[in-house]
Amino acid sequence: MKGKIKMNNTFKQISDTIKKAKNIAIFTHINPDFDAFGSALALYFACKKMNKSVSFFSKANLTEKQEVFIDKSWINEICNESDFDLFISTDTPSKNRLGDYGYLFKNNNETIVIDHHQNVDLVGKYNFINTSFSSCSEIVFKIIKALKINIDQQIASLLYLGLSADTGSFMNTNTNSCSFKTAYELSKLGADLAFINQNQYRSFSIKEIEIRKYLYENYKILGECAYILVDLAALKKMACSKADCDFYSSELISIKEAKYSFSIIESNKNFYEISMRAKSGYSVRDIANELGGGGHIGAAGAKVEAESIEAVKDKILQLINKR
Ligand SMILES: [Mn+2]
User: Fold this and answer.
1) 174: CA distance to ligand 1 center in Å?
2) In what order do the strands lie in the sheet with 294-295?
């Protein structure tokens, strides 16, 4: 973690802070994945069980897959700062990644930051930030246990969804004994494994198959690196959003010949979102850092502005080849 982060608080200190609050606002990173939604929404339902007034805020458009697990009615967009006495962020290492809500995490607000990324600049009054956890949902699980509320099937399922997603169904290099211990406990608490596994990994609409087809028809492999470029025209042709293509880089790292993989997706004209993966023993975190982004050793990303998608690709290949 970088210099200025405060020491972590205990789960008791964090749970006591939540217990004291009356009106709680919860946030997660932009382009939320299932660990972002799972950790934030599990905490949201835990707060509801404590009869808190609580809202979860996100401006995300849910993907087809996300809509299976997440109800739009759980999400609010507009946050009036003065309505809340506690602001909590999950799964987010920087103010930038909180999008429009980043400004709320300032010194004179009561704030809690819960995360498992290498921290950039999102520091709360209270923090639990630990990169050894494979998912933020595992940390939230510990906080909910410290709150001593009854963990029901919905909360257990949301946490399991996050854990399963960030470990790539227990196959990513970040998977560890704690991931399995949490999975064991969550399944005992009633997490709906069959529903989650079926819908997360074994269900593809025809549109999703077409999005996969684009990947297989257009990926490139250069040396030890597999990559795919998706510009606005390609997104339009597939009638999909950037989030629908978020799995591309993790799909490409499964190519036997690839040590690194990345996808570059044009989000707005001349703005590009990069997602990178590395096989065990290799790192993409430092490359993401050089591009102004961040993440984990095996999975990282960045957002850049550039004159063309080719220029972004050349820059990444140059950074990979430099090592
Ligand atoms: Mn995560």
Assistant:
1) 11
2) 220-222, 225-230, 260-268, 271-278, 299-305, 294-295
**Class for the domain spanning 11-200:** alpha beta
Six token digits for residue 178: 């704690």
Beta bridge partners of 89: 27, 113
In CATH, what number does 206-321 get? 3.10.310.30
First-to-last C-alpha distance (Å) of the chain:
23
Ligand 1 geometric centre to CA of 236 (Å): 28
Q: How far is the CA of 94 from the centre of ligand 1 (A)?
A: 13
Ligand 1 centre and the CA of 33: distance in Å? 8
Q: What are the extents of the domains in the chain?
A: 11-200, 206-321
Q: Model pTM?
A: 0.87
Over the stretch 30-61, which tens digit does the pLDDT of each residue have? 999 999 999 999 999 999 999 999 999 999 99
